[in-house]
Specification:
InterPro entries: GDYXXLXY (IPR025833). This is GDYXXLXY domain-containing protein. It comes from Paenibacillus thalictri. The chain is an alpha+beta fold. It has two domains: about 40 residues; about 130 residues, no CATH class. It contains two helices and eleven strands, in the order αβββββββββαββ. Strands 1, 2, 3, 9, 10 and 11 form a six-stranded antiparallel β-sheet that branches. It has a five-stranded antiparallel β-sheet with strand order 4-8-7-5-6, with no helix packed on it. The protein is globular, with a radius of gyration of 21 Å. The termini are far apart.
Length: about 170
C-alpha cells in the first residue's frame, strides 16, 4: 500500500513537471508563430555582410540603419539609455521604409501609422546609441548569401512586428 502511494505521488509530480515544460515550449513556439500571423509588416533598410557558419551554413549579418540612433530620439527622463536596457523604438513610414521617430524605456502608445519595435541597447555614448533587435542574423539557403552581399546598400528587410514588440524577419528583398 505504501509503495503504491509513493509511486503515484512521485509519478504525478513527474508528469506535472513534464507537462509544464512541454507547455512552456509550446508557448514559445506559439508566440513566434503569432508574430508571423498577426504582426504588422514593416520595411527596414540594411547593409548585409555574408559570413558562413560551419555548423549552420550561410547566414547574413544585417546592420540596420535604425540600429544607430541619435540621442535626441530618447524620450525618457534619464539623460541617456543604459547599456543592456530594453527599449522600444517607435518607427513610422517615410515613403516605403520605416524610420525611427522616438525611443522609450517602456512600451509606448503608438498611433495607427507607427510601430514600436522592441530592442536592447548595445552601446550608449554621448550623442548616439546603438540598439540590437534580435534581427541581426538571418540564415539563407546555401550558396545564396553571395547574392545578398552584392546588393549591399540596396537591401530592404521585411519584418513582422507583433503588438507586444516581438519581431521576426519575413523576407529580404
Amino acid at each position: 500500500m505504501a509503495a503504491s502511494r509513493w509511486f503515484g505521488s512521485r509519478f504525478t509530480r513527474l508528469l506535472l513537471l513534464t507537462a509544464a515544460q512541454a507547455l512552456f515550449l509550446l508557448a514559445i513556439a506559439a508566440s513566434y508563430m503569432a508574430v508571423g500571423a498577426w504582426g504588422q509588416e514593416i520595411r527596414l533598410k540594411t547593409e548585409p555582410i555574408d559570413p558562413r557558419d560551419a555548423m549552420y551554413g550561410d547566414y547574413v549579418i544585417l546592420n540596420y540603419e535604425i540600429s544607430r540612433l541619435k540621442m535626441p530620439l530618447w524620450k525618457e527622463g534619464t539623460a541617456k539609455p543604459e547599456d543592456g536596457q530594453t527599449v522600444y523604438v517607435v518607427v513610422k513610414p517615410e515613403g516605403d521604409i520605416y524610420e525611427p521617430v522616438a525611443v522609450y524605456g517602456s512600451k509606448p502608445a503608438v498611433s495607427a501609422d507607427q510601430v514600436a519595435l522592441k530592442g536592447r541597447v548595445d552601446y550608449s555614448g554621448y550623442d548616439q546609441f546603438s540598439v540590437k533587435y534580435g534581427l541581426e542574423r538571418y540564415y539563407v539557403p546555401e550558396g545564396t548569401g553571395g547574392e545578398l552581399e552584392k546588393k549591399a546598400g540596396n537591401t530592404v528587410v521585411r519584418v513582422k512586428v507583433a503588438s507586444w514588440g516581438q519581431s521576426r524577419i519575413s523576407e529580404i528583398e
